[in-house]
Amino acid sequence: MDGIANLQTAQLWSVVQTAIDAAIDTIPPLWPLASSVAVNPFLGQAGEPLEVAAVRLARLAGAAVTMPRGWYAKRVASGLISTEDLTGALAASVWPGKPDQVAPIIAALDRFVAVPDAVPTIADLAAVVSGVDWPGIIAERIGHWAAGYFDEGQALWRVARDRSAYWNWRDTAIHDLTPEVLGLAGFARFVAETPEPALGALARSIAMLELNDAALSGVLARALTTLGGWAQYARYLSFQAALAGTTDNTALDLLAIRMLWEEALFAHYREEIAPLWREAWTAHAAPLVANDEQRIDAILQHAAELGAQRDLAYCLAGKAVDLPADPIIQAVFCIDVRSEVFRRAMEAAHPRVQTLGFAGFFGLATAHRRFASDVVEKRLPALLNPGVTSVAGGAKEADHAQRYHARGARAWGRFKLAAVSSFAFVEAAGPTYLLKLARDALGRGATPPADPVPRFEPPLPLEHRIDTAAKTLRAMSLTDNFARVVLIVGHGARVVNNPHASALQCGACGGYSGEVNARLLAALLNDPTVRAGLDERAISIPATTVFVGALHDTTGDSVTLYDRDYDLTAHRADLILLQGVLERAGHVARAALAAGSRRQCNLEAGERLGGDAARMGPGWGSRVHRRPAQPYARSLARGTGVSA
Q1: What is the pTM for the complete model shown?
Q2: Which residues pair with 391 in a beta bridge?
């Protein structure tokens, strides 16, 4: 291959841009703490065979994509992976030298396979020859700058973001003498002399590192992996921009910043590390060909998936269905694993109760603004754009008054935390906070009040409302046999002291709790004009049916009903029955929680755990999910009982 420096200008830019795009695509997006959602960490490799992804991620991150051999060995010994599963996985493998029988695969279960080492960066090599922890220094200096640049209002002194990340870092780095104090002489001047467009700086770094085109994407992707969450957050920004039909170059900026460090270290330690660096980038240039152990791991993983599919098919096939002919209560829960125990308990609590499963945004991809809030919350799956907008109800005067009060509270909070006044505040007002600290530590903190009834703003046209209602009901498989009360149950988790609290909320709602979407859908389906339109589409909702929004608190397994959103006088008896069902189901679910955690299982204990500031993750690692003999028998009859 020709060296990058020897390519013609047009060819150079084409090769560089292609490599940059490929490198950025290997990084999965990371949602911010305010609305974190689960993301496949191997999203960038989703289009590759497992064994190829294993080779790539071994080079880039020193990461294994499959479980340790002992995990597969236990599943084989227990029968969760059968000989037939192994045979099927072996037959599907494209391994040219694969064995004819599964015996060598089974024998490989006893072999220890070490976690691979990533290909070293120049910073890694410089650390070896100098004894200076350059990877750690780079992570600290970039992280220190990035924490200010990407701040969303938590810092008292926010970094101006009127320019790109590259420009902002460059202005900061030319005044940062930390690298020079630690041994990288002339770094500030080096940064000052770099080309100002990020792409130009990156192209120069690539040329200076003596790479060839085959190694380029691997070297760049490896550099991004050393930035950890900052690269992933930049990938999130580009992901969101793509959804909106625009572009974002933050990931490119971070890549240019990281490669400038590589260039500076290479120039400083060139004599000692040049041969080692050539070996490193040559490893990136090699074809992505799996070795025998990686192919065996891929076969074992495929066999595990075949076993899980077989087990699930057995679970779903031939089950007796006890579907109520005339249900009194139906409850539509989010298809979240934390709702499974409660759903089973509800169906067991009364023979005329049926539960269904649906994605917790309930078909309403809304951008919502809470009462007295300026923040627009995207309560929708991460892959979607908002389709509607909504706001909390209530009088505008009260909304404005509460906003002014909130601004005063923020000003007071800044006074408490400021560099100088914080000392005086602690001296003067510190003792008055003892009661609050004790109350929070004991889980006695106040529960925030529910927002007023949410509404679409601007109001949706009637035809749009009817379309949305029809599509959602059909997707739920709920088009007839309606109960008198149909609960739309979102879920959330009451947590008071966890920076990752949004990860415990509803992923389908973008890391927020699900009561807003539940209440919006209930209002939509209670609308007489919408019901009249549904009649014309062969979905007839009886006049005696009422939809009620609700919120399942997965911390303490309690359900809050928003039954005051409507006049439910005619359904008083139904609501009394419903409250009894919810209380019994909650007791059963909390008993299962206590069985896993050996904790007290009453409602008061669950609520106290959720409000306990000393517990960052109440309920973590303590749930018991045992497959029942007939899971969701009544739900499976409608094809909606398989939980995600």
Answers
A1: 0.82
A2: 369, 455
